[in-house]
Amino acid sequence: xxxxxSLILTSLIAFSAGSLAQAASISTTIHHQYQAPRAxxxxxxxxxxxxxxxxxxxxxxxxxxxxxxxxxxSLSVAGTPGAMDFYNEYSDIEKSGKSESDKQTxxxxxxxxxxxxxxxxxxxxxxxxxxxxxxGVALIPVDVSVEMAMHQQVGPTINATVYADTTLGLAYxxxxxxxxxxxxxxxxxxxxxxxxxxxxxxxxxxxxxxSEIVSKSDLLEGYTIDADLxxxxxxxxxxxxxxxxxRLARPTFGAVVRNVAEMGFGQSMKLxxxxxxxxxxxxxxxxxxxxxxxxxxxxxxxxxxxxLDVRDLGHPDFNWRKGLHLGFEFDWTVTTWWKGHYRVGxxxxxxxxxxxxxxxxxxxxxxxxxxxxxxxxxxxxSRVYATRLNLxx
Length: 393
Fold this sequence. Notes:
Elements: H1 8-13, H2 37-41, H3 55-58, E1 70-79, H4 83-94, H5 100-113, E2 118-132, E3 135-152, E4 156-175, E5 182-203, H6 204-209, E6 220-235, H7 242-248, E7 252-258, E8 287-295, E9 302-313, H8 320-323, E10 324-335, E11 338-347, E12 350-359, E13 362-372, E14 381-392
C-alpha cells in the first residue's frame, strides 16, 4: 500500500506501528460498538426512543412497535479538530529524508508540542440496515475507530488505540401478551462481530524506526457471537387528576442488557492478521442501559421529546458522570418527504447538538459531541464532529 494512495484513516493508523513488546496504551474512553448521529445529538440517550433503523443496536424492543419497513444505507465519518493537522506534521517528518536520529528528535518535539491533546477519528464507509415490524438485519462491513493521546510517561509517547469491527446483526421483537396497564415490548439482537484491535504506547524511537504504514502483525484479531436483550414499557395512565397531565407526555421506559454472553474474542478467522497472536482484542463488556422518554404535545408541524438515560452500568470505566445522558429533540414535518429535527443534550458531562434534514430518500445528519478521555476523577473533553450521509427508503 503506498502512502499517497492510503485512506486518511489508514494514515492515522500509521502512528500505531510499533513492537509487540510495548505496553498496552492507556485509554479510559468507553467505546460503543455502534453509534447513531441522531442519538448522539440528544446526548446519546436513545434507549426508550428506538423508533428508527438504529433500534436494532440501541434497543431491539423498538422493532415491535414499527408499523412499516425502513432500509437505510449510509456513510459516516467523525473526528476531532486538528487530527489531520497533526498527521500532516507527522507526514512532513516522515518524508523529510532526515537521518533516523534526527527524525527521532523531530518526533519527540512533535509529541511534546501536543502534550495533553487527544485526537480521534471514526469511519464507516458503508452501513446497511433493513428493519420491518418485529424484525431487522444490519451489516456494517467496516467500522474503524482510532484514538491517539499525547502523554509524558517514561518519555514522550502516543497512546494509540484502534478498533476495526465488522458486524452482522439479526433482531426479532414482539409485544408481551396479557400485560395489564400498558404495553410491554421485548426484543433481541444477535450479533456476529469480527474485531481487529491495537492498543500500545508508541515512543518517538518507534516512530523513527517505523517502515510501514500499517503493521498487520501488531493487530490482534478475533470474532465473537453475542446478543443484546431489550425492553420497552409504555404505562397506561389514568385520565384524571395528576396522572392526566402525565398522560399527555406519553412516558415510555426502556432497558437493555448488552453483550449478555460477554464471551470475548477468543477465536480468530485470521481475516486481518494471519500471523500468530499473543493476546485477544478488548471484549464487548456486559453492560446495562436504562432510559426514559417524554413526548411534547404536538402543535401544528412541530413535536418532540425529552430523554434521560443511564448507560454503561457495569463497564469497568463507568462513573455517574460518564453514565448520565440527557437530551431533547424537536421535530418539524411539512410532508412525509420533507422534514427535519433539531437536538441538544448532555453526554458524559459535555454538551451535544445535532440536526437532521430529510428530503425524499436523501438524509443528512450532522452532530457534535464529546468523549470523556480523562480519568474517573478528572474529566477531559475530546470534542468530536460527525456527519452521516443516508439513503433512506
